Amino acid sequence: ARQLTLLEFKTFCSIRPYEFQNQAWSKEKYKHRAKNLLHSIGYFNEFSNQVASSILLEQTVNSRKDMFNLWISVCQHLRALNNFNTIKSILAGFNNAAVHRLQFTKDKIDKKKQAILEELTEEMSSEKSHKNYRAILK
User: Fold this and answer.
1) Neighbouring residues of 114: CB distance < 8 A, sequence distance ≥ 6
2) How far is CA 60 from CA 28, 30, 52, 57, 101, in A?
3) How confident is the model at residue 126 (pLDDT cuts 50, 70, 90)?
4) What is the pLDDT of residues 14-60, one digit of tens each?
5) CA dist 45 → 50, 90, 98, 115, 135 (Å)
6) How far apart are CA 102 and CA 55, in angstroms?
7) Using one digit for the tens of pLDDT, what is the confidence trace for 56-94?
């Protein structure tokens, strides 16, 4: 979790305020102005895909359950480090369509870990303009 936080910090610090102007990252003619922001977005997407792949590549239900438990534990440590972006990335990996359908696997996750996952999902929820997330940041 600490290493993920250091990687995230390095990427985050490279972003400059002008990269947000005029939503440069979303317009083809301005993308050259937002290369660090685009790198951060790409890192988020790549990492969430790696999380999903790490679960899907496991052959058995129990090994997939163990991988879920591992990522939930990583999220706990990331939460202690206030690394919300990487938590959001891991949750995005869990919400990948193929991972989302693994109901038998999810049912085998420890109740304690399921409660932690539900709490993290609620904290990172986008409902009411990220109300819970904003409350944490205060």
Assistant:
1) 106
2) 43, 46, 15, 9, 15
3) confident
4) 999 988 887 878 888 778 888 999 999 999 999 999 999 999 999 99
5) 9, 10, 15, 25, 25
6) 10
7) 999 999 999 999 999 999 999 999 999 999 999 999 999
Eight-state DSSP code of residue 58: -
The separation between CA 76 and the C-alpha centre of its own chain, rounded to angstroms, equals 12
Can you give the three-state secondary structure of 8-38, one letter per residue? HHHHHHHCCHHHHHHHHHHCHHHHHHHHHHH
The C-alpha atoms of residue 49 and residue 37 are separated, in whole angstroms, by 19
Task: Supply 2's token pair.
Answer: 């600490």
Token pair, residue 131, equals 């109300």
Looking at residue 128, what is its pLDDT?
86
DSSP 8-class letter at 131: H
Give the closest residue to 47 by CA, choosing from 10, 96, 82: 96
pTM of structure: 0.89
CA atoms of 136 and 30, how far apart (whole Å): 33
If one counts every other C-beta atom within 10 angstroms of the C-beta of residue 89, the result is: 23
